Amino acid sequence: MLRFGLFGTGHWATETHGAALDAHPRAELVGVWGRNPERAGALADRYNVPAFDDADALIDACDAVAVALPPDIQADIAVRAATAGRHLLLDKPLALDVADADRVVAAAQGSGVASVVFFTQRYQPNVTAFLAATAAAGGWQHARATMFASIYQPGNPYGESQWRREHGALWDIGPHALSLLLPVMGRVTRVAAMNGPSGIVHLLLTHDGGATSSASLTLDAPTEAMAREIVYFGENGIETAPEPQTSPATAFSVAIDQLLEEIEAGTRDHRCDVRFGREVVAVLAAAETARTESRTVTVPLPD
Fold it and tell me: What is 122-242+281-298's CATH topology?
């Protein structure tokens, strides 16, 4: 039984991380920490575990951390947990800049802990099977991702998220788009980006080998224009990624399974580990520079 500490108290922590950990037969939720003590207490009561007022005390009490916090806060918790030898089940994006992402990678590699980053769709069996088959087919010349969400409608649990309001679709749903493009199209080498209306950001990406892809993203689409479409074009024709078939909590349970497999096997090569999380952050950071400075930006390789 792997003992997890849950860091975060929002809707995602409650309904996805907490629900999956509570139901998992090989995970034990041992406590909750959050920046708001009242909400931490309510979440802890829901799952009949203690609320911790000190993050390091919860790190000491567990074997692994599940983090559902804003990315800049997540990075610091992840470094502290990894340094203490705790395995990492983190959320996307890993951090809000490359330097923080590098700190997480260095801490995880330095201590040898297992790590999994929860790019939600990468834990949907039908999506992962599609990506594996599409990557194996090869010959892809271009891909297009359109993700138009609408989170600012009344009652949406993510609409009041301050970090989402500040950093927008690029950092919130950009990681989802990249998690589906990179396994098929390869590493991104160059990025161009520009803004559109209603918080839209457009990305044009060059990949290893010369293939290209584009992504159009927003959190503030008209409800009639909400969309998710990922299409690949190549020598074998056109393929469209399927819609996810299970709930986020079910997908998170798969992520727990895969972290357990990494720990038990002693391997540290999960396809969505902190190194992949860092790769995604590097692309997002390059896109941020590209749209701010109106130029194409080269994505640096990790040191």
Answer: Dihydrodipicolinate Reductase; domain 2 (3.30.360)
pLDDT one digit per residue (tens) for the chain, 303 residues:
999 999 999 999 999 999 999 999 999 999 999 999 999 999 999 999 999 999 999 999 999 999 999 999 999 999 999 999 999 999 999 999 999 999 999 999 999 999 999 999 999 999 999 999 999 999 999 999 999 999 999 999 999 899 999 999 999 999 999 999 999 999 999 999 999 998 999 999 999 999 999 999 999 999 999 999 999 999 989 999 999 999 999 999 999 999 999 999 999 999 999 999 999 999 999 999 999 999 999 998 887
Q: Topology of domain 2-121+248-273, per CATH?
A: Rossmann fold (3.40.50)
Joined tokens for residue 14: 């409650």
Tally Cβ neighbours within 10 Å of residue 77: 24
Domain boundaries, the chain: 2-121+248-273, 122-242+281-298
Both tokens of 53, joined, read 């007022």
Of the candidates 173, 203, 177, which has an alpha carbon nearest to the alpha carbon of residue 191? 203
